[in-house]
Design brief:
Layout (H helix, E strand, L loop, with lengths): L8 H10 L4 E8 L3 E9 L5 E10 L9 H16 L3 E5 L3 E8 L4 H15 L2
């Protein structure tokens, strides 16, 4: 990982080890349309699993559907799916996209995903 990485994987791992559920998470980027974070889960075999999570908000508090926002969201979701993110719907009007990565690829994928999502919502 690069020295200027906003991801402190060692700290995340330490927090996950201390956590009751064996997981730690840090939000790195947030906007009104999405949130991007990284995390780590420790399995029952004590193996850490690092991941990137991108939450896409489908509704921004209005009762009216914003078709422009939905179109941007769909474009973004298709691009993330092409990058092998798992995609699942949540009950609170958002979609969770997640990808498991090695610690070595975490920062590079964060940079790529951050740029991709940012461009989708410009």
């Amino acid at each position: 990982m690069k020295d200027h990485s906003p991801i402190d994987a060692k700290l995340l791992l330490k927090e996950a080890e201390a956590s009751e559920h064996g997981e730690a998470y840090a939000t790195l980027t947030r906007s009104s349309n999405y949130r991007i974070g990284v995390g780590v889960r420790i399995s029952s075999s004590d193996t850490p699993s690092f991941f990137i999570e991108i939450i896409i908000y489908l509704c921004l508090g209005s009762v009216r559907a914003d078709l422009s926002l939905l179109q941007k969201s769909l474009s973004c979701l298709k691009r993330l799916q092409a990058r092998k993110y798992s995609i699942s719907y949540q009950n609170d009007n958002c979609i969770i996209c997640e990808k498991t990565l090695s610690i070595q690829n975490l920062y590079r994928e964060y940079e790529t995903a951050n740029l991709l999502v940012k461009r989708c919502f410009e």
